């Protein structure tokens, strides 16, 4: 039987390589794009979602079209993030592992440029690059693109979102006029259309699947809750899905950090991924997630761009994206490679209009779901425990020596009683937390006066934790993990902001960030003076905390008030030992709070690649290209660019 990839025109070496990767049949995008791209004579625009097999759709034809006898760069693939860059390079190396003399280089910021230059000097045919570092290398005249025949712009919409338009123009201007350009994008906003128009000659256009249709394997759900109940809703969703392996999207870095911190405090195995982390820290977080040593990754849009992790069960939109089209990217983190997944939005009643807009874009309907009641969660957890106990592997050798003592302890109980007590151990804990848990669901109609009052109430509450009268509350992205004490932070802020210590009020030292209150009269001076400040090679950011993470702080507030909080504390404390010893959810806690914090501890000495953030603040390209890949030192750069 002829291999389906051979039928599409792929040669044996490459077919054998993809077979070894477990690719038996082409995905729909591969089926459609490969024959067209193999002709090699046309520009191409592919509207394709993430996780659909896009890389092989352009990677396999490239391997057929490149002359591997020559060691000159013939294909350039540009993509938005370092993660994606590494992913694509790795995939193409795998596809070409039986292709003699094939060489692929990944060129991205935040890594040693000398090594990349060496690889280029040794001869490569395929360059996979993020735009900033590529420009650096072009600026050093270290690469010759005169033989480039194919340029692939992958995730073009995201590259434009991240402000790479000008860089792309500059890079493309160094490639021959007669090269072919292949553009892939999950969405087709006017800016991407413009690129297609400006750089391409009558491109063949393919829409993979129905136009704008999201991945069919993804279910889309939304929950309507009061804004201040978002964190509780998130916890309820997670508790109801004990085996969740998910990505939670927040809008800002601060929210991301804050939600992650609260989840960790509450005993969940979570961590944050955002642009204020150095590349090293980001890599570490991603590795834990990839290895499934972490259950919940809390991320900003930009930081999550390169995430290509299979088997993500849930994407949770803790906040809807500002640009509705980003929803496609977010939800595409689940339902990959034929798996099913759920994309959840936790919204307030006023946001239902946005859900309708998203529905129009993805061409699919959302289900309005109801948050499980406390009782539902208890039941789900109870039976989760029962199944786990039933299936747990017994270490006969180790447990044997304790069995007679254990039996003695239970001698006065019947089998039924032992089972009942054992199940109650976990059930009671959830029951205690959830027995008075309110219904968090709202209907879309709950948006009138009551909704307004709610919003007002929320602001009131926020005001409660705001600055004292006459003071401004400032957020600063350093904290105890940077080995700051309150005193250190006071001098740091005063010295760099050039204000007197007398003007500083309360200092709230947190883990990776802190809040500092300063007299309103000096706040502006401080902010104006506090420019280009670095700590351990990281750019220090200070800003008015008006948009401090509200929903999660609510979680924190709530945490402080009795019943519910007891849950988090109990989880980490009293029950810890038992859990670790193999009881329910041991994984979650033992590798949760603990390793999360450990990671953060390590962050304090994090890499210096973040120094590059400031490059977005308006330095000229000459200045920028003098350095080594600072722009992409981390997605932090990207985040920053997006904000500005
Ligand atoms: P991509 O959209 O290129 O990031 O691919 C998404 C995932 O699908 C990756 O894990 C690929 O390894 C996998 N994949 C791509 N093509 C195929 C195929 N034809 N059969 C099975 N898995 C595939």
Structural summary, described in words:
- The protein has 644 residues and is α/β, with parallel strands linked by helices.
- The chain has five domains: 4-207, P-loop containing nucleotide triphosphate hydrolases (Rossmann fold, 3-Layer(aba) Sandwich); 218-373, 3-Layer(aba) Sandwich (Rossmann fold), CATH 3.40.50.300; 376-434, no CATH class; 471-544, Alpha-Beta Plaits, CATH 3.30.70.330; 590-631, no CATH class.
- The chain has 28 helices and 20 strands.
- It has a seven-stranded parallel β-sheet with strand order 3-4-2-5-6-1-7, with helices on both faces. A seven-stranded parallel β-sheet has the order 10-11-9-12-13-8-14, sandwiched between helices.
- Strand 10, helix 13 (279-290) and strand 11 (296-299) form a beta-alpha-beta unit.
- Helix 3 (28-38) runs parallel beside helix 4.
- It is globular.
- It binds adenosine monophosphate.
- Adenosine monophosphate binds next to helix 4.
């Amino acid at each position: 039987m002829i291999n389906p990839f051979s039928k599409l025109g792929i040669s044996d070496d490459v077919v054998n390589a993809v077979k070894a990767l477990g690719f038996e049949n082409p995905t729909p995008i591969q089926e459609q794009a490969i024959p067209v791209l193999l002709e090699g004579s046309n520009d191409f625009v592919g509207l394709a979602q993430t996780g659909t097999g896009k890389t092989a759709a352009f990677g396999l034809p490239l391997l057929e079209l490149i002359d591997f006898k020559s060691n000159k760069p013939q294909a350039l693939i540009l993509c938005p993030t370092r993660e994606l860059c590494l992913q694509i390079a790795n995939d193409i190396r795998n596809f070409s592992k039986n292709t003699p003399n094939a060489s692929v280089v990944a060129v991205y910021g935040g890594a040693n440029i000398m090594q990349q230059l060496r690889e280029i000097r040794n001869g490569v045919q395929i360059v996979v690059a993020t735009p900033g570092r590529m420009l650096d290398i072009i600026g050093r005249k270290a690469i010759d693109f005169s033989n480039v025949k194919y340029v692939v712009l992958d995730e073009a919409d995201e590259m434009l979102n991240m402000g790479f338009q000008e860089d792309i123009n500059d890079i493309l201007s160094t490639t021959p006029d007669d090269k072919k350009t292949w553009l892939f994008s999950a969405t087709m906003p006017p800016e991407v259309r413009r690129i297609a128009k400006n750089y391409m000659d009558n491109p063949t256009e393919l829409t993979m699947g129905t136009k704008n249709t999201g991945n069919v394997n993804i279910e889309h759900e939304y929950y309507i809750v009061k804004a201040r109940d978002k964190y509780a809703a998130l916890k309820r969703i997670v508790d109801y899905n004990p085996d969740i392996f998910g990505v939670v999207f927040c809008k800002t870095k601060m929210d991301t950090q804050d939600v992650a911190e609260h989840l960790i405090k509450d005993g969940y195995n979570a961590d944050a991924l955002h642009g204020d982390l150095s590349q090293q820290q980001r890599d570490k977080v991603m590795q834990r997630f990839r290895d499934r040593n972490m259950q919940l990754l809390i991320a900003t849009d930009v930081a999550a761009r390169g995430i290509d992790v299979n088997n993500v069960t849930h994407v949770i939109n803790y906040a809807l994206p500002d640009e509705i089209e980003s929803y496609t990217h977010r939800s595409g983190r689940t339902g990959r490679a034929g798996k099913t997944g759920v994309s959840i939005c936790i919204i307030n009643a006023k946001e239902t209009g946005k859900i309708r807009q998203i529905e129009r874009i993805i061409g699919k309907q959302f289900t309005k779901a109801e948050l499980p009641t406390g009782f539902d969660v208890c039941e789900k957890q109870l039976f989760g425990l029962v199944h786990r106990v039933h299936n747990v592997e017994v270490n006969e050798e180790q447990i044997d020596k304790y069995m007679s003592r254990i039996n003695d302890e239970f001698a006065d109980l019947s089998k039924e009683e032992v089972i009942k007590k054992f199940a109650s151990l976990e059930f009671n804990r959830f029951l205690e937390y959830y027995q008075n848990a309110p219904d968090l669901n709202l209907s879309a109609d709950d948006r009138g006066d009551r909704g307004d009052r709610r919003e007002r109430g929320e602001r009131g509450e926020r005001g409660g934790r705001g600055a004292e009268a006459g003071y401004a509350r400032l957020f600063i992205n350093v904290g105890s993990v940077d080995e700051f004490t309150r005193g250190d932070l006071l001098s740091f802020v005063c010295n760099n902001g050039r204000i007197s210590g007398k003007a500083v009020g309360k200092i709230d030292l947190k883990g990776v960030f802190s809040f500092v209150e300063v007299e309103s009269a000096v706040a502006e001076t401080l902010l104006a003076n506090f420019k280009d400040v670095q700590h351990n090679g990281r750019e220090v950011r200070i800003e008015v905390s008006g948009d401090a993470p509200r929903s999660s702080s609510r979680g924190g507030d709530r945490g402080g008030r009795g019943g519910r909080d007891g849950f988090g504390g109990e989880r980490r404390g009293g029950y810890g030992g038992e859990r670790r010893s193999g009881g329910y959810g041991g994984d979650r806690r033992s590798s949760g709070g603990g390793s999360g914090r450990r990671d953060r501890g390590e962050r304090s000495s994090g890499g210096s690649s973040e120094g590059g953030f400031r490059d977005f603040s308006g330095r000229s390209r000459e200045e920028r290209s003098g350095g080594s890949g600072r722009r992409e030192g981390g997605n932090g750069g990207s985040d920053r660019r997006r904000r500005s």
